[in-house]
Amino acid sequence: MTPRHDEDPLDPHGHLDEQAVDGALRPPSLEEFGGQPRVSAQLGLVLAAAQHRGAVPDHVLLSGPPGLGKTTLAMIIAHELGVPLRISSGPAIQHAGDLAAILSGLTEGEVFFLDEIHRMSRPAEEMLYLAMEDFRVDVIVGKGPGATEIPLEIPRFTLVGATTRAGLLPGPLRDRFGFTGQLDYYDAADLVRIVQRSASLLKVALDDASAQVIASRSRGTPRIANRLLRRVRDYALIHASGRITPPVASAALDLYEVDELGLDRLDRAVLESLCVRFGGGPVGLGTLAMSVGEEVETVEEVAEPFLIRQGFLMRTPRGRVATSRAWAHLGLTVPASRVDLFTDPDA
Ligand SMILES: Nc1ncnc2c1ncn2[C@@H]1O[C@H](COP(=O)(O)OP(=O)(O)OP(=O)(O)O)[C@@H](O)[C@H]1O
């Protein structure tokens, strides 16, 4: 049987993979960017004032967990300013020369989006200080004692740096950003609107109650909301004649092991390991990550912030510790040896 691609209006010929569909769902303007009202309003003002003065806006730092819209905001900034966008990432810039090549190739007023800015090499970072402040880079020509620095003027640009770990940025780099937007997890009402917008772009009928089922399991993250919507759409297509209802949405998400609070396999593996294997901790992050077969960064940047926010896990100087809520969520009883930890002495 020939596969049918015509189900997807964003992908009529079947050329777009899932990531491309994700990109197609990105809101193009601040007005369409749902949620984050504080960051949106502050950023809007920075851009409007710069445009009013006819100046290139200050550099912008966006921080927050993955999937909350940092790349989307960088694209929106360029779009609102009507300038081109150049994209790179910290790990891709290992030598100062890589950065010099990018910066000298920018056009006047261009937005330069540098993702994972905390993972840039030290020499590149130092070059960036100068570029951000004086719109100049010092290119080193030659080697050893005969090496000379040649100053090179670069066009004025707006750097949009993104990081999941603002705390890892050296002070001098952080200080050179004129505006810092701290993105936080989205509340359910915002996610409902985001998922409804995506559903309408995908030409999928989605009632309020079903949108709420998806939003409540999306860990406060638009990228996850869009992904779950696509999984629910698939499930409805195969099992419910394409009709999404709250029970259909719940059944789909159960199948994909996303529970009612939005915890996925990795989150539960981390909690289970912490509670069962390590008796609730404290346990070091490296050991915890190894016990679930994941990279330290993944556990630290993807699972942990959400588990902490949900009150399942605490970071302590001696390691990660489970809360009583973690045992309860796993359907386990807090071991007798831990009970006193969670008992309020004044109760
Ligand atoms: N405020 C929003 N409104 C609507 N959709 C959004 C919003 N924020 C993010 N999205 C959607 O979520 C997806 C992920 O967003 P984005 O790639 O900007 O996240 P990110 O913070 O840059 O993630 P990472 O740190 O992993 O690069 C995008 O495809 C976009 O469609």
From TrEMBL:
Sections of the chain in a coiled coil: none
Binding residue positions for ATP: 25-26, 67, 70-72, 133-135, 176, 186, 223
Major enzyme class: hydrolase
Region of interest (Small ATPAse domain (RuvB-S)), ranges: 187-257
The enzyme's E.C. designation: 3.6.4.-
Keyword terms: ATP-binding, Cytoplasm, DNA damage, DNA recombination, DNA repair, DNA-binding, Helicase, Hydrolase, Nucleotide-binding
Binding site for DNA: 315, 320
Annotated region described as Head domain (RuvB-H), given as residue ranges: 260-347
GO cellular component: cytoplasm; Holliday junction resolvase complex
Compartment annotation: Cytoplasm
Positions of the UniProt region annotated as Large ATPase domain (RuvB-L): 6-186
Segments forming domain AAA+ ATPase: 56-187
GO biological process: DNA recombination; DNA repair
CDD domains: AAA (cd00009)
Catalysed reaction, written as an equation: ATP + H2O = ADP + phosphate + H(+)
Residue numbers binding Mg(2+): 71
UniProt record similarity statement: Belongs to the RuvB family.
GO molecular function, one term: ATP binding
Role according to the record: The RuvA-RuvB-RuvC complex processes Holliday junction (HJ) DNA during genetic recombination and DNA repair, while the RuvA-RuvB complex plays an important role in the rescue of blocked DNA replication forks via replication fork reversal (RFR). RuvA specifically binds to HJ cruciform DNA, conferring on it an open structure. The RuvB hexamer acts as an ATP-dependent pump, pulling dsDNA into and through the RuvAB complex. RuvB forms 2 homohexamers on either side of HJ DNA bound by 1 or 2 RuvA tetramers; 4 subunits per hexamer contact DNA at a time.
Subunit field text: Homohexamer. Forms an RuvA(8)-RuvB(12)-Holliday junction (HJ) complex. HJ DNA is sandwiched between 2 RuvA tetramers; dsDNA enters through RuvA and exits via RuvB. An RuvB hexamer assembles on each DNA strand where it exits the tetramer. Each RuvB hexamer is contacted by two RuvA subunits (via domain III) on 2 adjacent RuvB subunits; this complex drives branch migration. In the full resolvosome a probable DNA-RuvA(4)-RuvB(12)-RuvC(2) complex forms which resolves the HJ.
Free-text comment on this protein's domains from its UniProt entry: Has 3 domains, the large (RuvB-L) and small ATPase (RuvB-S) domains and the C-terminal head (RuvB-H) domain. The head domain binds DNA, while the ATPase domains jointly bind ATP, ADP or are empty depending on the state of the subunit in the translocation cycle. During a single DNA translocation step the structure of each domain remains the same, but their relative positions change.
Protein name per UniProt: Holliday junction branch migration complex subunit RuvB
Keyword Nucleotide-binding recorded: yes
